[in-house]
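Lecture notes, continued. The same structure-token format from the folding unit now serves as the input rather than the output. Read the line below as a description of shape only.
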């Protein structure tokens, strides 16, 4: 028996999907939290998220604003802090 839902139920536990686009092959796809990495640096310029494009295999790195950082961290994306100890 197959049940098809147009949109996933909000309360159901499951992997959070993040929509991303690849600048290399211009493919759009959804990635699970495990496929993404978030790096938080000391400034907005050094804060970015990265992933490997499932379509062409290129490593993609994109700047992450406050909103994206919040989305990714609450979604369970592995976070790497780049703060240099001074
Ligand atoms: Zn690609």
């Amino acid at each position: 028996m197959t049940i098809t839902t147009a949109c996933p139920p909000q309360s159901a536990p499951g992997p959070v999907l993040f929509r991303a686009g690849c600048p290399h092959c211009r493919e759009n796809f959804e990635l699970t939290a495990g496929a993404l990495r978030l790096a938080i640096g000391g400034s907005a310029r050094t804060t970015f998220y990265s992933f490997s494009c499932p379509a062409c295999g290129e490593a993609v790195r994109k700047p992450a604003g406050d909103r994206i950082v919040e989305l990714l961290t609450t979604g369970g994306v592995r976070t790497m802090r780049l703060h240099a100890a001074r």
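Point for the exam: Residues 17-81 form one domain.
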